[in-house]
Amino acid sequence: MTRFGDFEPLCHQVPSYPWCNLFYRQVQHNNASVLTGLSANASSAPVGVNPVCGIPLVGHDNSLANIANIIACALSIILVSVLIFWTSRRRAAVGRAEFRQFLVLYLLTLPFQLISTGAFLQQGSTALTAITAIHAGLVAATFWALLGNAIIATQVVEDGTPSAIIPFDFFVLAFFAATTYIALDVGFTFTHTFGPSDPTESLHSIPLFVLTSIWPGAAAVLYLLIMAYVVLGMLNEVRPMWYFLLAAVLFVLSQLDFFLLNKVICNNASHKIDGTFVATVLETAAVTVLYFAWRSITEESWDDDMYYPR
After folding, report:
1. Which of 107, 203, 212, 254 is such that its CA lies 20 to 30 A from the CA of 276?
2. Spatial separation of the C-alpha atoms in residues 118 and 70, rounded to whole Å
3. For the chain, what is the mean pLDDT?
4. What is the distance between the alpha carbons of residues 6 and 112, in angstroms, rounded to a whole number?
5. Radius of gyration of the chain from Cα atoms?
6. Is the bond preceding residue 199 a cis peptide, omega within 30 degrees?
7. 3-state class of 162 per DSSP?
8. Can you tell me whether residue 218 is helix, strand or coil?
9. Domain span at residue 141?
10. Which residues have CB under 8 Å from 297's CB, separation 6+?
11. What gap in Å lies between CA 256 and CA 38, rounded to an integer?
12. The Cα angle at residue 288 between residues 69 and 171, in degrees rounded to 5
């Protein structure tokens, strides 16, 4: 029976689910007999633990790795870099520093996602496990930054000041450090606090499940609710709310694709690509729409040479 915190159904049914890299190493070192099917041979195993469909490690069975998602991540890196540049130019905009930090964190998740889901590195390797753990930490920190931006938008503290930046950065570091440590402990089993799952085949870790699966969704919902209050209640505007709703729809579609259509695409493409590239495109589209939503409720930047009447 599946319990709360079990990753086994996800690692079995969802291709390229990155957190399964942590459990593959754990299982490999504690009970290797659990690894069967596509996961039996670490030198060619795809991302996942006994997945029903997966992309073999690059170089095996003519595999080009997860090439579609690699391209999607590369293009997303370019687009998000442009958004960061545009955000930096809006010097007078409310919450500029905090929103830029959110974009930077999302940008950092992309190369780690590219590697952790790209079928580049051998399953069970130290490098892949460590990179996946850092990726988990960045994802948790990114969703705090998203929620933190909503809190800043209420102007409960003045944006850009130490009273705003210090707590904001503290929680970014706290989420990153805590999630990365837990993920490392799951992968390398340093201790028995977050280490081996019991039973092994359940791939069980409640803290990791909460921080990588529950927390992002909860943060996104809270962000939308707070921004609805800011836009509709504080600013008495309607048009910007459509941007936030569109971003929410794109994010939900990205998750539906990843968890429902991913396997379908993988099977129909004969294990050459899966649906992660669609999820990446939709997530980046949601972030882009959030930029325009933020832009629509903030002031333009001041010009360098302001005109002063004589």
Report:
1. 203
2. 7
3. 93
4. 23
5. 21
6. yes
7. helix
8. helix
9. 66-189+206-296
10. 94, 153, 230, 231, 235, 237, 240
11. 24
12. 90
Count: domains in the chain = 1
Residue with tokens 């990446």: 280
Reported as type and span, the H/E element at residue 177 is helix 162-188
DSSP track, 54-84: -PPPTTSTT---SHHHHHHHHHHHHHHHHHH
Which residue from 188, 21, 203 is spatially nearest to 119, judged by alpha carbons?
Answer: 21
Contact between 90 and 301 (Cβ < 8 Å) = yes
Locate the DSSP E strands across 163-275: none
pLDDT tens figures, 82-126:
999 999 998 878 889 999 999 999 999 999 999 999 999 999 999
- Residues belonging to the chain: 310
In a domain, 306, yes or no: no
CATH code at 244?
1.20.1070.10
Cα–Cα dist 81/89, whole Å: 13
Residues of the chain with pLDDT under 50: 301-310
Q: Would you say the C-alpha torsion 139, 101, 283, 130 has a positive or negative sign?
A: negative
